[in-house]
Amino acid sequence: MTATQQAFDVQAVRRDFPALAQEVHGRPLVYLDSAATAQKPRAVVEAEERYYLRDCANVHRGVHALAERATRAYEEARGKVARLLNAEPRECVFVRGTTEAINLVAQSFARPRLREGDEVLVTHLEHHANIVPWQLVCEQTGATLKVVPIDDRGELVWEALEALLGPRTKVLSVSHASNALGTINPIAKIVELARSRGVPVVVDGAQGVPHGPVDVKALGCDFYAFSGHKAFGPTGIGVLWGKAAHLEAMPPYQGGGDMIRQVTFAKSTWAPIPVKFEAGTPNIAGVIGLGAAADYLLALDREAAAAWEQELLARATAALEELPGLRIVGQARDKVSVVSFTLEGAHPHDIATILDHEGVAVRAGHHCAQPLMERFGVPATARASFAFYNTLEEVDALVAALRKVQELFG
């Protein structure tokens, strides 16, 4: 038993995740698709169930007991999420996920500031959710989208970033970690450089929060977004953290109920942050479930969990490199536990289908990162993504299943 195994009891963690105990196609499930959606601990499911069975009412409006209980649970969840990010609760806006968060920033923060000839900077590592919203706002304002290149490892070319951060750059938006390659970007260093040029930084943290502690104050960024479902919480819920000064200055992204202070036919005024950005009845159960996920992560030894994920990554990388005809796409020196690969003679979708019949769940496709696939000259990859609830034996099961793919495709 390794020191990491002694420090982190993966079997105890697995007991918290009921879905992992099932069989698929008559085989024990080996779930290696957490970068797409992570499995949920029992506490998250129970928190949502408790709301629907006992406390089901709208928030912020009612004075009866159920409404008060629902409102209390909803706002307590905001506090839990704030602790997860080392932030202030009033700086945490509930949204549908990272995608909505980035759209909100693009339209409410960036659009009023952009003029023709201005530039928005992203990187070649980005998920479509951190590309398309910026394309839209550039089309609306006459600004130009610029892209920081990456090298063959899948790491940012630092000299290019320095060169592209110019006087016309009004926003830099960058992923904390690549969903397709696993590359971890040095956010604090990037922010320091951008701040020296007066450029605000937006961070897509969808793959950051699931893999280790996040401290937005230490990172120094202006905005940080993440999705609940990738961080062991429910689908359809996420968080945009933003510096209070930015959020207070930004106009509402959507109008409707709850986000107002006063409405007349002549004029409306807005509620304070963060409610100003939460129009309509929110995903109350999702927020409460996300609060339970935050509780779970806060109670977990994140450092030990991250070390365990790195052990899984190292074992998987070493084993996959031994398979003839297999190419790992993205070999950054600092990665979250994601391995993207191709296998000579087999399409990624065929790989994923055969693996599924062996009980191994992986993702195949462009991973909502088509420009990145183009950069590496492939239409798609197969991707195994590990979470702290995976085991070394599951790494071995992945490799054994890939050997069967090789046998079938010669």
SSE inventory with pairings:
Layout lengths: L2 H5 L2 H5 L8 E2 L2 E2 L1 E2 L10 H13 L10 H21 L6 E4 L2 H13 L8 E5 L8 H10 L2 E5 L9 H7 L4 E7 L11 H10 L4 E4 L11 H4 L3 E5 L10 E5 L1 H6 L10 E4 L4 E3 L13 H16 L2 H20 L4 E3 L9 E6 L4 H10 L2 E2 L1 E3 L4 H6 L5 E5 L6 H18 L1
Parallel strand pairs: 3-15, 5-6, 5-7, 7-8, 8-9
Antiparallel strand pairs: 1-2, 4-10, 9-10, 11-12, 13-14, 14-17, 16-17
Helix pairs in contact: 3-11, 4-11, 12-15, 13-15
Task: Identify the notable features of this structure and list them briefly.
410 residues, alpha/beta, Aspartate Aminotransferase, domain 1, Aspartate Aminotransferase, domain 2, 2 domains, seven-stranded mixed sheet, four-stranded antiparallel sheet, 15 helices, 17 strands, 40% helix
Q: Could you explain the architecture of this structure?
A:
Helix 4 packs across helix 11. Helix content is 40%, strand content 16%. With 410 residues, the protein is α/β, with parallel strands linked by helices. The chain is built from 15 helices and 17 strands. It has two domains: 138 residues, Aspartate Aminotransferase, domain 1 (Alpha-Beta Complex), CATH 3.90.1150.10; 255 residues, Aspartate Aminotransferase, domain 2 (3-Layer(aba) Sandwich), CATH 3.40.640.10.
